[in-house]
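Your task
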Amino acid sequence: MPDTRLLGVFALATFVLTVTPGPGVLYVVGRSVGDGRRTGLASMLGIETGEAVYIAGAALGITALIAASPVALSVLRYGGAAYLVFLGIRAWRDTGEEDEAGGEAAGASNWAAYGRGLVVQLLNPKVAVFFLAYFPQFIRSGEAVPPQVVLLGAIYIVIAMSVDTCYVLLASWLADRLARTARARRRRARISALTYFALAAAALVLGGHDTAARATAG
């Protein structure tokens, strides 16, 4: 297993990467601005679950198979971009005049936000490429790889969730202060929609480049 010093370097590098706004951060910020803190947090959990799936796939060797297939990467890239456009259209049509739902409806909405975040991240092929490029730098040779990937993945997820939660809380707090009227809420929905459209465009434009940076991973 990686020693304590190596894990410390990994944690620091991960913090620097995750605190730098990338598509994943912009997505949860967009959800927080458009629909509030709870939706932003649910979306963030969906995003991180998607990353956990790719980390598990990396430990099992499945992620490498996906990353090695241009067809699979293209399907994920175009599918992800189309889904973001769909979410953008829905957000743009939001009138911003709906009252907060109570109990059961709010819970269903949170689960839907979680599911959308999960789908968005699973349809982001750069996540697979990112973990395949990033984790091996901290893997010790001569030792079993899967347990090391699981440990590094757990550290990564904890740090990413902490950072993204801060972004959600800040974005939702600012949005609440600025959305005092129906007109302001509609404007907030438009900003959220434009965020989705920008992410879809970025997925198409940047998708052809095999970079491994947090800016393209989430």
About this structure: Residues 4-217 form one domain. The CA atoms of residues 86 and 195 lie 12 Å apart.
